[in-house]
Amino acid sequence: MKNLKLVKIQEGHEKTQFKVGDITFGKDFVVIAGPCGVETEEQTVKTAEAVKAGGGHMLRGGAFKPRTSPYDFQGLGLKGLKILEKAKQKTHLPIVTEVIDPRDVTWVCEYADILQIGARNMQNFSLLKEVGKANKPVLLKRGMYSTLREWLNCAEYILAEGNPNVILCERGIRTFETYTRNTVDLSIVPAIKELTHLPVVVDPSHGTGKLSLIEPMSLAAVAAGADGLILEVHINPCEAKSDADQQLTPEQFNNIMKKVLKLQKFMSENIFQASEGK
Length: 278
Ligand code: PEP
Ligand code: MN
Known about the structure:
By secondary structure, the chain is of the alpha/beta class. It contains nine helices and ten strands.
């Protein structure tokens, strides 16, 4: 792939690793979990506590929600970020939150440990340039109509501005299939590993949009070699203001986590190390 000067893995170069809280991206397996959107302090703090209790490493939650309809819940903005700050104080979980406007990047950095760029903004080049100047890692979601080449060029935009800490996130793409919300493209995980030095996580919540499919696709992502998962969890999913159908209850999250961590341990001890040593 032409022009991927910074993103491409070069002979003899190390994989990208960087620390966020206690986690080293690119080395440790990371589970980022939390509500789709920040709705109330109680909802966010209780969900954060459940994520922590279930073994999650970071809290996700949108204060800015890029919604298909202008009449749907758009997020609480600054109020939402302040709620995330409270949840962080209580749980010590680092915060992953979306930024949708280049003008907001500087002040959102005061609350976010990782800036999320959503699928709908993957090719928002002014936003990419702005987060490229920020001093926070960026979780770059794959656009729902984007090829790997287009996606990696977007990561290149961020690196070219001087920010080397990018995490790629596969969140499903649009195909002719309608049973699932999107089609999770798991072959992209090993493809990213062979082409780039960047960590990659998988989002089976938006990827499938179906509760029953989140566990099997989480396990499949682990087996494919993903560096982590991002999962939507809500203290009371039926009352969620966005993505109510796909948010896990704390109990469902706990059950998935047990299996995910077990499989991840097995894979890293028996399969990944063995294939690296070949
Ligand atoms: C989200 O993570 O809440 C979100 C809006 O995801 P995506 O950009 O992948 O649709
Ligand atoms: Mn969502």
